[in-house]
Amino acid sequence: MRLDKYLCDALGATRKEATKIIKSGDVTVDDVVQKSGSFKVGDGSIVEWQEREIRKPGPRYIMLFKPDGFVCSHEDGFNHTAFVLLDEVKMEDLHFAGRLDVDTTGLVLITDDGKWSHRITSPKHKCEKTYRVWLVDPIEADYIEKFAQGIELRNEKEATLPATLEIVDEDEKEVLLTITEGKYHQVKRMFAALGNKVEHLHRERIGEILLDESLEPGEYRYLTEDEINSVWK
């Protein structure tokens, strides 16, 4: 595909605007500056504008390190939406493949592929999510067994599905919890049902996708092919 056509598709720019962007010298293809709109962009080439990778329209799969204070929705009257952290075109096409509460940090997946996100969020697929949990009080000896059996939550007809609890620190106030559901405030409610309180919650994993350790809060990157395909396993 011609470079100018690529920019038109990726940025929603006119041909005239794309030509101006290319001539500015801010566009690289595979780390080489290109100033000709007729330059042919290969299928595997990486196109960057002002040192930011841009991609032509198509399914997008994004990993975001969500900070505290941001909501996973397009609009909110009280808090910032996590979408303001993205520098993407056609933001209205994107949605969250599993949300986090405003005060929960960590891994959030964003896409415009509905079938892919359904694979993550649909209860029947039982996609695992791992959270690092900091508690007010140390866990008690029977916590691990109770989480494995399922916990009765207030206003729920059935107990939660079996979950895996792992102690992280000697004080027994920091744990890793892996669940396969996504009930409203589920992690906080599970510990509350046992008389404990979550002080902070951080999601580290969804399925086989781990939060990239190189990302700082508020940063994001595109998923790799292996990460994208892991959802279908």
UniProtKB/TrEMBL annotation:
Domain RNA-binding S4 intervals: 1-63
Top-level division of the source organism's lineage: Bacteria
Reactions it catalyzes: uridine(516) in 16S rRNA = pseudouridine(516) in 16S rRNA
SUPFAM superfamilies: Alpha-L RNA-binding motif, Pseudouridine synthase
Record key words, sorted: Isomerase, RNA-binding, rRNA processing
Keyword rRNA processing: yes
Molecular function, one GO term: 16S rRNA pseudouridine(516) synthase activity
Assigned EC number: 5.4.99.-
GO CC terms of this entry: cytosol
InterPro entries listed in its UniProt record: PsdUridine_s_RsuA/RluB/E/F_cat, PsdUridine_synth_cat_dom_sf, PsdUridine_synth_RsuA/RluA, PsdUridine_synth_RsuA/RluB/E/F, PsdUridine_synth_RsuA/RluB_CS, RsuA_PseudoU_synthase, S4_RNA-bd, S4_RNA-bd_sf
Biological process per Gene Ontology, one example term: enzyme-directed rRNA pseudouridine synthesis
Family listed: Belongs to the pseudouridine synthase RsuA family.
Function (record text): Responsible for synthesis of pseudouridine from uracil-516 in 16S ribosomal RNA.
PANTHER family for the chain: PSEUDOURIDINE SYNTHASE, PSEUDOURIDINE SYNTHASE FAMILY PROTEIN-RELATED
Stated name of the protein: Pseudouridine synthase
Native source organism of the sequence: Vibrio nereis
